[in-house]
């Protein structure tokens, strides 16, 4: 049974950093593009970042460019989202996902507040 298990997140001050991890089991995520999405209270889900199956090509929504970094460790079958210079507007529940197979992590709360 395939699943994505997230870890990380929590509370950070503005300007701080957090890292999210998403460990896959039951499938090799290196064969697929992996994505990160977030949903803030009262707002729609938005796609934040992702990494293609080549493990090098990444994409980011404009609001996080230069602050977030998506990466992959194929040996650990895990993808990461490093979030730096966090802003209160980054507060949301973050999800990792493999969109084609419709696999989703359980979500991680990220709160940015002083």
Short description:
With 114 residues, the chain is mainly beta. It has no helices and eleven strands.
CA-atom Rg in angstroms: 13 Å
Q: What does the overall shape look like?
A: globular
**How many helical elements?**
0
- The count of β-strands is 11
Determine the mean pLDDT: 97
Helix content bin: under 10%
Largest sheet: 7 strands, mixed
Describe this structure in words.
By secondary structure, the protein is mainly beta. It is built from no helices and eleven strands. The strands form two sheets. Strands 2, 4, 5, 6, 9, 10 and 11 form a seven-stranded mixed β-sheet that branches. A hairpin with a 4-residue loop joins strand 7 and strand 8. The radius of gyration is 13 Å and the shape is globular. The model has no long low-confidence stretch (mean pLDDT 97).
Question: Which labels suit this protein?
Answer:
114 residues; mainly beta; 7-stranded mixed sheet; 4-stranded antiparallel sheet; 11 strands; 0% helix
Topology of this structure?
Blueprint: E1 3-8, E2 10-12, E3 18-25, E4 34-39, E5 46-51, E6 58-60, E7 68-73, E8 78-83, E9 92-98, E10 103-104, E11 108-112
Parallel strand pairs: 2-11
Antiparallel strand pairs: 1-3, 3-8, 4-5, 4-9, 5-6, 7-8, 9-10, 9-11
